[in-house]
Amino acid sequence: GAVVSQHPSRVICKSGTSVKIECRSLDFQATTMFWYRQFPKKSLMLMATSNEGSKATYEQGVEKDKFLINHASLTLSTLTVTSAHPEDSSFYICSAWVTGSRPLHFGNGTRLTVT
Amino acid sequence: RKEVEQDPGPFNVPEGATVAFNCTYSNSASQSFFWYRQDCRKEPKLLMSVYSSGNEDGRFTAQLNRASQYISLLIRDSKLSDSATYLCVVNLPSGGSYIPTFGRGTSLIVHP
C-alpha cells in the first residue's frame, strides 16, 4: 500500500532555532500534501495545503512566514518552523494525496518540543 | 455550522458491545468518504472507505446515506483494542476541486 515517510519523528530544539520536517510519498506521486498540527487531546488542525510547484495555501491564523512550506517535487514537501518558540511545541503530521477519490495517507508525525 | 461534524464522545462501552458513530456533512456535492482511526500520539490510519452500498470489514461496517448527508460506522463485538479516536473524512468541493476535510473525531473507550 501507499506509504508516506515523515522525518524526523521527534525533535527537541531550543527557542529561536528553526526546524525542518520532511514528508515523502514513497511509492506514489502526490499532487497535494497537507500539513496538520495537533495538540494533546485535541483535533487535527489543518495548517496548510501544498501543491507541487506552487505556493502553499495557509489556513486562517497560520503564519506563512513562521511555517515555511516547500513542495519541490511530487514526492517531497517540507515544513520549516522558523524561530521556534515553546508554544510551537506540538505534533506535526503531513499527509499526501492523489486528487480524486483516493484516501489520504499520513506520515507518522513529528513530535516537536521547543525548550 | 461546521462542514463535517462528529459527536466527540467519549463513548464508553463494555467489551462485546455494539457501538455506532455518525458523521454529518453539509455539502451535498461531497464525494469520497472515509473512516480513519487515530491512537493516542499516533498518526491517523485508514480504517475503511464508505459507499452507499455499505462496506463491511469483519466487525466493522460503514454506510453512506446521501439523502440525509451522513456516514456511519458500526463496530460489533467491541474489543479493548478498539479504543481510539475515530475520524471521518469527507472530500468537500472547493474551488473546482475537492479537499479532504476531517471531523473532530469521536473518542471510543472500551472497558473490560
Describe this structure in words.
- The complex is a heterodimer of chains A (115) and B (112).
- Chain A has 115 residues and is mostly beta strands.
- Chain A has strands at 4-7, 10-13, 19-25, 32-38, 45-51, 57-58, 67-73, 76-81, 90-97, 105-106, 110-114.
- Chain A is globular, with a radius of gyration of 13 Å.
- In chain A, 35% of the residues are buried.
- Chain B has no helices and eleven strands.
- In chain B, strand 4 (31-38) and strand 5 (45-50) form a beta hairpin.
- Chains A and B meet through strand 9 and strand 10 of A and strand 4, strand 5, strand 9 and strand 10 of B.
Task: Give the helix/strand layout.
The complex is a heterodimer of chains A (115) and B (112).
Chain A: E1 4-7, E2 10-13, E3 19-25, E4 32-38, E5 45-51, E6 57-58, E7 67-73, E8 76-81, E9 90-97, E10 105-106, E11 110-114
Parallel strand pairs in A: 2-11
Antiparallel strand pairs in A: 1-3, 3-8, 4-5, 4-9, 5-6, 7-8, 9-10, 9-11
Chain B: E1 4-6, E2 11-14, E3 19-25, E4 31-38, E5 45-50, E6 55-57, E7 60-65, E8 70-75, E9 84-94, E10 97-102, E11 106-111
Parallel strand pairs in B: 2-11
Antiparallel strand pairs in B: 1-3, 3-8, 4-5, 4-9, 6-7, 7-8, 9-10, 9-11
Concise synopsis of the structure shown:
The complex is a heterodimer of chains A (115) and B (112). By secondary structure, chain A is mainly beta.
Features:
heterodimer, A: 115 residues, mainly beta, four-stranded antiparallel beta sheet, 11 strands, B: 112 residues, six-stranded mixed beta sheet, five-stranded antiparallel beta sheet, 0% helix, globular
